[in-house]
């Protein structure tokens, strides 16, 4: 290996993932170095490669595709372009490499085939049920926008990795992230940071009975999920939706192909470490299927899911990536959740490229054998009695 991997300096005690690399040039990546980089992404979940300001959209696409060579459709396909979709407003494909999306904040001109585009950094105000007041925003307070993995969750398989390239960042400023969920929790963050949590850690910190329940549960995503939630609003900590019955009905949605609806296990296996990750996109979930039986009550589904996922976003478990211009991040999209953070002003400018590709295969399920070390004695005994 010709490059060096170092843990990201992070004071949060629950963060056991994330590395940085200072001595690699992605424009001159050997096959051998790619193999090492791929292993690092699946082992450490988030890899920040510094000093890559010169990387072209073609190279970003090539590197992203190298993780899953058979595919070339953007992770959301064309579904995110539906005007009403909660994804549409955040992304613009580059004309010559449409799998690479331009995102950020402020006016961008003559940028890789785009003549002019006014970008808007996703602001919680358009998505949260109860946003910060304008006074709080003026005091540089902010929120997690939306905890998610990058995935269409309908028709297409979740991308294996996402590459996120921070070309230009706003002038550095600190903001105070507020959870506003009754916990009183806050975090001091860099303006425009990206927040990550590890799905593996999210699983590890669950009590034994919740681990068992997670193993027995499948997650059913809504058809056209980002349209389905387009009138609904999120919790103040960005972890899933508030239940007010505002989801679009089947009649209001485009035609539904039953075979395109995604049902995945709640636990996914890491392809390299073989560790177990709790991996759920909370906002897009329509039902939980426990021991083959659908819960069938959206409010209860969301309450239970929140119980599974809320401990994982405690401040001590969150990695806040502090961007420098030219940072190129590759993250294991099937192993972490992430969130946009930051309330940017008109004068703040941010230019990023993002790429992910709908995967060639479904996530790897956790087998009985994989889960065996986590069975509680009581559960093992119960299974013995019932069999
Ligand atoms: Fe994302």
Topology:
Blueprint: E1 5-7, E2 19-21, H1 31-44, E3 46-49, H2 57-66, E4 92-93, E5 100-111, E6 114-119, H3 134-138, E7 141-142, E8 161-168, E9 174-178, E10 186-190, E11 194-198, H4 199-204, H5 208-215, E12 217-221, H6 225-228, E13 263-265, E14 267-269, E15 276-278, E16 285-290, E17 293-294, H7 298-309, E18 319-321, E19 327-332, E20 336-340, E21 350-356, H8 368-371, H9 377-386
Parallel strand pairs: 2-3, 7-9
Antiparallel strand pairs: 1-2, 3-19, 4-5, 5-6, 5-21, 8-19, 8-21, 9-10, 11-18, 11-20, 12-13, 12-16, 14-15, 16-17
The structure holds fe (ii) ion.
Family: Belongs to the TfdA dioxygenase family.
Organism: Hesseltinella vesiculosa
Keywords: Dioxygenase, Iron, Metal-binding, Oxidoreductase
Describe the structure in your own words.
The protein contains 9 helices and 21 strands. It has helices spanning 31-44, 57-66, 134-138, 199-204, 208-215, 225-228, 298-309, 368-371, 377-386, and strands spanning 5-7, 19-21, 46-49, 92-93, 100-111, 114-119, 141-142, 161-168, 174-178, 186-190, 194-198, 217-221, 263-265, 267-269, 276-278, 285-290, 293-294, 319-321, 327-332, 336-340, 350-356. With 387 residues, the chain is α+β, with helices and mostly antiparallel strands. Fe (ii) ion binds at residues 148, 150, 338. Residues 148, 150, 338 line the site of fe (ii) ion.
């Amino acid at each position: 290996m010709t490059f060096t991997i170092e843990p990201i300096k992070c004071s949060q005690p629950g963060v056991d993932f994330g590395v940085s690399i200072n001595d690699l040039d992605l424009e001159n990546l050997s096959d051998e170095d790619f193999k090492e980089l791929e292993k690092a992404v699946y082992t450490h979940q988030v890899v920040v490669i510094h000093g890559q300001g010169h990387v072209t959209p073609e190279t970003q696409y090539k590197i992203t595709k190298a993780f899953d060579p058979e595919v070339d459709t953007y992770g959301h396909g064309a579904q995110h372009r539906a005007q009403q979709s909660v994804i549409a407003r955040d992304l613009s494909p580059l004309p010559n490499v449409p799998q690479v999306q331009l995102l950020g904040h402020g006016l961008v001109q003559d940028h890789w085939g785009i003549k002019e585009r006014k970008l808007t950094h996703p602001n919680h105000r358009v998505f949260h049920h109860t946003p910060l007041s304008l006074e709080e925003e003026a005091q540089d307070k902010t929120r997690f926008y939306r905890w998610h993995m990058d995935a269409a969750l309908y028709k297409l398989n979740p991308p294996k990795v996402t590459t996120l390239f921070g070309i230009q960042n706003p002038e550095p400023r600190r903001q105070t992230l507020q959870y506003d969920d009754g916990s009183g929790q806050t975090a001091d963050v860099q303006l425009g940071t990206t927040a990550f949590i590890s799905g593996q850690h999210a699983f590890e910190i669950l009590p034994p009975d919740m681990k068992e329940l997670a193993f027995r549960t499948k997650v059913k995503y809504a058809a056209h999920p980002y349209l389905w939630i387009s009138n609904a609003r999120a919790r103040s900590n960005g972890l899933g939706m508030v239940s007010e019955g505002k989801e679009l009905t089947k009649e209001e949605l485009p035609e539904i192909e039953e075979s395109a609806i995604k049902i995945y296990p709640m636990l996914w296996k890491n392809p390299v470490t073989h560790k177990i990750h709790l991996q759920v996109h909370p906002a897009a979930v329509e039902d939980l299927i426990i021991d083959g039986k659908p819960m069938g009550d959206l409010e209860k589904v969301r309450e239970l899911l929140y119980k599974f996922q809320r401990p994982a976003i405690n401040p001590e478990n969150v990695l806040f990536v502090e961007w420098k211009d030219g940072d190129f991040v590759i993250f294991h999209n099937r192993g972490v959740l992430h969130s946009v953070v930051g309330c940017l002003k008109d004068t703040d400018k941010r230019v990023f490229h993002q790429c992910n590709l709908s995967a060639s295969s479904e996530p790897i399920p956790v087998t009985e054998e994989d889960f065996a070390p986590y069975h509680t004695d009581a559960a093992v005994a119960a299974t013995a009695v019932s069999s």
